[in-house]
Write a structure and sequence with these properties.
Length: 189
């Protein structure tokens, strides 16, 4: 490390070349984080669901699914506290897989509407101790309206970014898909 910034280091360009991918990632990812922060996305999403619920979905069941950072809003909509212009909840039911940016217990205690979660036991965004806390919350609520499926060995992103060359990853992704289909089938018949 002592020669890292020495002017006559023969590998200075090589060292800067290793920094370049990191700099590009930060350069491209920072705007994404800025424009998709909760304070920007939440009002837009709520407005979209309110319009859906007031127009096409006024007499139809409405469900939401979310993955990763997209799992936060369906979970919050299942609190049932935000209503569409016609007084109906924004959604009737939701499914989320490997949600991130979640706060346990704050995001789960207020749940009123059916929610299903699929999360891996090796997910950094919701570690196993948080999954156990969520399960305890669900156990106190009305039976059958909330479910948490812990997918053994699955890592964050398994439901949408599984490695098609890895049979176990494919199986984990298919389990989440089957869970979502069964959950919406249960509520929408």
């Amino acid at each position: 490390m002592d020669d890292w910034l020495e002017k006559d280091s023969p590998s200075m360009l090589g060292k800067l070349g290793k920094i370049s991918p990191v700099a590009r990632t930060v350069y491209n990812f920072a705007p994404f984080l800025f424009f998709t922060r909760l304070s920007v996305v939440k009002p837009r999403t709520y407005k979209w669901f309110s319009n859906l619920r007031t127009e096409e979905g006024a007499s139809l069941p409405v469900g939401a699914a979310g993955y990763c950072a997209g799992g936060k809003l369906p979970t919050l909509m299942c609190h049932g506290s935000v209503k569409a212009e016609n007084g109906q909840p924004l959604v009737d039911v939701a499914f989320v897989a490997h949600p991130s940016q979640m706060e346990a217990p704050a995001d789960f205690e207020p749940l009123q509407l059916p929610l299903s979660i699929s999360c891996g036991t090796k997910d950094f965004a919701l570690p196993i101790d948080k999954l156990d806390e969520i399960q305890r919350i669900f156990d106190r609520k009305e039976k059958g309206r909330f479910e948490l499926v812990k997918v053994e060995g699955a890592r964050h992103g398994f439901a949408v970014r599984g490695n098609p060359g890895n049979a176990e990853a494919v199986k984990q992704g298919e389990e989440a898909e089957d869970q979502a289909v069964a959950w919406f089938g249960k509520w929408f018949g």
